[in-house]
Amino acid sequence: MVISPVHYIAVPLLAAFVIPLFAKLNREFVRIIPGIVLLYLSYVSIVLMNQVSSTGTISEVLAGWAPPFGINLVFSAFSGFLASLMTFMGLVIWIYSYRFKKIDDEPALKFYVLFLMLITGAIGIVLTGDIFNLFVFLEIVGISAYSLTSFYRNRDGAEAGFKYLLLGAFASTLILLGIILLYSSIGTLNMADIAQKSHLIPTSLKVSIFILFVVGFGIEAEMFPLNGWAPDAYSQAPGPVGAAFSGIAVKAGMYVIIRLIYTLFDIEGSFQFLIVMGLITTIIAEVSAMKQTNLKRMLAYSSIGQMGIVMVAFGIGTREAIIAGLFLMLNHAIIKGLLFLSSSYLVYNDDNKLISSLSGLGKRLPLVSFLFALGAFAIVGLPPFSGFWSRLYLLLAAADKELIYLIAIILIIAVIEIVYYFRVINKLYFKDIKVKSDDVQKPSINAVISMSILGILIIAIGIYPDLVTSYLGNAADALLDKAGYIENVLVDINN
Amino acid sequence: MDFGQYQNIVTISVYGSAIALILIGLYAVLIKKNLIKIVIGLSLADAGIHLLFVAIGYLKGGTAPIFSPSVVGENVTMVDPVPQALVLTAIVIGFAVTAVALSLVIRLYKHHNTARIDQIKSLKW
User: B39 lies in which domain range?
Assistant: First the structure.
């Protein structure tokens, strides 16, 4: 069988819908099939990434209709990097959630179906070359994310899910309106074709379309002021789902905003817009994170702040800054993933997930606490962890463009992060034990394995950043090469 | 009244009702306190968008975009089929979102015993 980018979408989508059938044969299939699917997708990632680095971008035409009429998938070094990252995070989260007790209390079947749908949608967003197809995948992500947010049948889960749904449905209305305006002005939905013809759209109309899209996708990318759903959703959703949101769903939203600015529309000032929005997002989120008493909410605000910094990096717009931005996205996925996964064992039996209840847990749960501390050190950017290098690259990129104020703000943000993360670590290690030992949930062996994979990766990238920088360089080149993107997709009609 | 004038009135009323539906829907989502009314507002805004999309794909005097033996080779205007296909997809998506929204409303009602959004605030914004 020939490996192609279609497998990324077809295999998990098919699996999501046959799991309920296999569940009739044996309940264990429910847990095993997602793992097999994600392992296969990891294999597809490795094969395709090697193919891309040797032969260049793969543009896959679906159903025999060549672009710009049919739907195509584009697996470039840039989109492929994000798709591989999402697959990897999906695999790690699957290892973690295998027999995760709180999920098994509810029907595990629902969790795995929705989880596979979330991954399908997010990878679809990254790979598709058609703007309406993008909208459909966004809705797949949206519907599975609303349901996963309200996965526990308690009171607050439904409220968080409904808030997320309101914002998401509102966003999809705006995106659809943007697609209508776009289609009525240039009559195409293919992204490469739009990029080629976007100079034909009158500037005022182009700016309106751009704003409709940015507001719509900004909700998924946690852009301020559209991120009201995030703290509630992260604090109410099951632990693995929080990691999936920050590692998979949010990355997809961010990808679309980057694609809009770099490839689709050529609007003056959009890079500055991204820097300003990123700075506002990160400052407000980090200040809010300081005063949170709920651990999950604190991590959610920290996640929003990180995405703000990613926006700043892509707003600078040089090759070095894009590498820094991609590095930040990679780090955000693995480090925030580790923090969400380990924190759900730290506050396992506390419904309010209070930071004060962590007192002295460092002695009760030594391994989980150690991994949480590792993640905290990495995310604030201490050497020798991977977070250090992404911050350093970002500061160097900002210094190259002589954006001194940006450097100042990024460093102040780092100090704020150190304050609130170290407050948690202080509670973990230097306070007296309050909880009784039978109130603590010991992590299962597979949870330990998945968290250790992320921890080892953080240290490995921290010591040898060259492990990833060559991939990031290729991805940055692919993103900047707009003419190459258009040529790859529209090769048949231009010749 | 001749045919052209009649068509203009139809065009204006279709675009007008599409925009009116979108605005009514947004009004309901933003102002109304009842969860059911908010969900209705979402559906109305969706319906308005769908109507607008189909209207944009319409050509004056166009026929259905189907190649049948009677029209092949003849110079006939056909309406643009792409918006219609997209709207069909969008209707299905809107249906799914509405279903999830209503199920969440039911669950909220069971826990809070009210469907007013200003009385449901156990989570801070």
Answer: 3-119
